[in-house]
Amino acid sequence: MKKVINDPATVVTDSLRGLAAAHSDLLRVEYDPDVVLRADTVVRGRVALISGGGSGHEPLHSGFVGHGMLDAAVPGAMFTSPTPDAVQAAIKATTVDAGALLIVKNYTGDVLNFETAAELASADGLDVRTVVIDDDVAVADSTFTAGRRGVGGTVLLEKIAGAAAERGDRLDDVEAVARKVIGQVRSIGVAFTAPTVPHIGEPSFELGPDEVEFGIGIHGEPGRERIKAEPADALVERMVSAVVEDLPFSRGDDVLLFTNSMGGTPLVEVYLAHGIAERLLADRGINVTRHLVGPYVTSLEMQGISLTVLRLDSELADLWDSPVNTPALRWGM
Amino acid sequence: MKKVINDPATVVTDSLRGLAAAHSDLLRVEYDPDVVLRADTVVRGRVALISGGGSGHEPLHSGFVGHGMLDAAVPGAMFTSPTPDAVQAAIKATTVDAGALLIVKNYTGDVLNFETAAELASADGLDVRTVVIDDDVAVADSTFTAGRRGVGGTVLLEKIAGAAAERGDRLDDVEAVARKVIGQVRSIGVAFTAPTVPHIGEPSFELGPDEVEFGIGIHGEPGRERIKAEPADALVERMVSAVVEDLPFSRGDDVLLFTNSMGGTPLVEVYLAHGIAERLLADRGINVTRHLVGPYVTSLEMQGISLTVLRLDSELADLWDSPVNTPALRWGM
């Protein structure tokens, strides 16, 4: 294993020091427990938006802390849920009268630990609620999950709910728009190679030289099936079909199309897939009116891509378009 | 070889279709020859800034087309210089009375083809000049280069010269600020794995399980030496020393520190390296006042990182800070 690390036990904290140095205008980091917080002060009357999960998926979640998106991100150890006390620290640092919404990807450990922290905060008199995102259409249950996994849709959810919180929506309304996004977003991923978790030191699964894991999870969990490598047109058609048929998306829908690198796949291939996916959606009468392309929900150095499609109405489109200023997403300001 | 492509012969053009679809607000693409152009119209009295080079280094250069940075990017085939006629097409599409500056990375083919295009444009009565960036301190000459290679500093050069062109500086002044950047910027890279060029189909070199190529080029060209894998503190110290001693940077300097992923190295490691590099510079009395972290000059899926340090004065810092709106760099608007 060759990696730019000193010690697998401290890799997350060591990386946060670099994040804090690079983006002191946007965020600050508190350590032990590790929490990433917006640099600007907590505002009375504004809902706090908090997310987190195992590390190794960067820029998710800490790269999305800032104006118009997350108030706090709670990074767990590599591929490991953050502890309830770390989530509690994030709540305490950000949450005042207007309450907080916790965005949780559907993994058993994350759901348990975030809900525990929310209950403890509620016992202290704070209005803290959770929403669980489960946008991955690949499999019904999986290694770390009862029910579907939360994957690429998380970025869109954090952006849109963050915009609602930023403009001063009440907690009921931020929660409602979050639940709307969760209801309208679907994803699927594929992998060509496996990630190597530092404290394990070897790839988390084996794939043959012509094998592709179709429906991969973001921790390298198995998907629907192993298929033979195929040209991009065929692979992306398979992915678009899986996503479109699930919701289902329909002729006339306006959508946001998010084509994501799982980490190790170069941008030239991600844009190539994006162009194909947009054409395949257009062939079905589905209009891509918003775009996101790049490595936003990764699985360390895993090679592969994912597609996420979100059905838009004018409210969701406006919230997507509104200004955001974070390390990884930035526009309009 | 598993990649998201249809045909190695069309991968660059196929990818540009996705780029154009995703960023129609910022840029448009003309095909055959392939040129990426700013979406807004050419402005009389404003210098055109043009760059380009072999593909496979994305987001360099096409991801930097837009307000405050490049007017045009000319993507060659994978790891192959663009042809003079493609560069000519970019000049014709963007250059009016104020002339154009071509930013060329120091590779023999790029220098030849950009200078040929510049001479042809000059013969047509346009004032077109070239600057050559050669910021890589690793080796004096290399596989594709007489003299030092142009690497990570190119991003900083395109941003700063682009800001000067955007505010209406005359060609003499844009060229002067570009030459100032070239004089003040130094880089070095390391690789853990090799990239696979689609039309070749196998990794471009072999590294043992504990070997690191120190001083790697962005096409996987050999560097200074092969070293044993070592902890991040030692590796980054080796990189910082090579860069600092070269210019040399001195106690009291204000600098921009750019920590780059070569493509396949996850962001968690890149931020970790950035934090170490900032501390090692501070130990030498060098103040990092501006930061850039991420995969901006890549070599397909190659795992590795590079460090680039630019000495700043108030002019360069102001131009760096000024608004930019491109697919890959965006702030202030």
Structure in words:
Two copies of one chain form a homodimer. In chain A, the strands form three sheets. Chain A has a six-stranded mixed β-sheet with strand order 1-2-4-3-5-6, with helices on both faces. Chain A has a six-stranded mixed β-sheet with strand order 9-8-7-12-10-11. Chain A has eight helices and 14 strands. In chain A, α2 (84-94) crosses α3, α4 (153-166) packs antiparallel against α5 and α6 crosses α7. The mean pLDDT of chain A is 97. Chain A is globular and about 55 Å long. The first copy, chain A, has helices spanning 11-22, 84-94, 108-123, 153-166, 171-184, 232-246, 267-283, 314-321, and strands at 27-30, 35-38, 48-55, 72-78, 100-105, 128-133, 185-191, 211-214, 225-228, 254-261, 287-294, 304-311, 324-325, 330-331. In chain A, β13 (324-325) and β14 form a beta hairpin. In chain A, 32% of the residues lie in helices and 23% in strands. Chain A is an alpha/beta fold. Chain A has two domains: 10-183, Rossmann fold (3-Layer(aba) Sandwich), CATH 3.40.50.10440; 185-323, 2-Layer Sandwich (Hypothetical Protein Tm841, Chain: A,domain 3). At the A-B interface, α1, α6, α7, β11 and β14 of A face α1, α6, α7, β11 and β14 of B.
